[in-house]
Design a protein that fits this description.
single chain, alpha/beta, Rossmann fold, two-stranded antiparallel ribbon, 14 strands, binds 1-O-pyrophosphono-5-O-phosphono-alpha-D-ribofuranose, binds uracil, binds magnesium ion
């Protein structure tokens, strides 16, 4: 079971397996092939935990021979929204779990000098306000990018309590800033690190996720 470390902050269980996966992707000597493979394994765990958080209703299933099974089924519809570029790395993990899931994109880039986010583009499912939204971005550093994306979602009619923000690593500063503004959004993360450095990178962190996943 994932632990709820604060209201609406859900941390994946820190099992030996998970720590092993993070040990690989945090290692600066890890090459891109392994970085992608092991990040994808963590992303799958985050998506599975996101699905665990959705509301369900009881349903009675008729099994072989007329036996009954008290089961459950998900109430509602979901979609994914990735914060381009690094968030796109999480789309496949969501597709692997949710057949033909709709996916929107928001292009936000952090200014390399100031670390402030800039919004360039958005394309979201028409009926997004009727859906639970899995907001996808591997890194929650200052929280600026995630807050800007959440603002876009809310402006499109999404209720904050229906947003689940999935990330691989979060900083305490980022969680605090994000929840100060959007306390109803569930943050689902695989790791909460120590702090941010002077360049607003997560410490110990893993460096620039997008560069390591797509470029280096
Ligand atoms: C990174 C990361 C987040 C953001 C986190 O993206 O993927 O989107 O920074 O930082 P914040 O919480 O301080 O806003 P970046 O803008 O560097 O671009 P990329 O996705 O293209 O790698
Ligand atoms: N973006 C990253 O990719 N890594 C960080 O530590 C902060 C922002
Ligand atoms: Mg990004």
């Amino acid at each position: 079971m994932a632990t709820e470390t604060g209201k609406n902050v859900i941390l994946l269980p820190q099992t030996n397996q998970l720590i092993g996966l993070y040990s690989i992707i945090r290692d600066q000597a890890t090459k891109r092939g392994d970085f992608v493979f092991y990040s994808d394994r963590i992303i799958r765990l985050l998506v599975e935990e996101g699905l665990n958080q959705l509301p369900v209703e009881e349903t009675l299933i008729k099994c072989h021979g007329g036996h009954e099974y008290k089961g459950s089924r998900f109430l509602g519809k979901i979609c994914g929204v990735s914060i381009v570029r690094a968030g796109e790395s999480m789309e496949m993990g969501l597709r692997d779990c949710c057949r033909s899931v709709r996916i929107g994109k928001i292009l936000i880039q952090r200014d390399e000098e100031t670390a402030l986010p800039k919004l360039f583009y958005e394309k979201l499912p028409e009926d997004i306000s009727e859906r639970y939204v899995f907001l996808l971005d591997p890194m929650l550093a200052t929280g600026g990018s995630a807050m800007m994306a959440t603002e876009v979602l809310i402006s499109r009619g999404v209720d904050a309590s229906r947003i689940l923000f999935l990330n691989l690593l979060a900083s305490p500063e980022g969680i605090a800033a994000f929840h100060e503004k959007y306390p109803e959004v569930k943050i689902i993360t695989g790791g909460i690190d120590e702090k941010l450095d002077e360049d607003k990178y997560i410490v110990p962190g893993l460096g620039d996720f997008g560069d390591r996943y797509y470029c280096i």
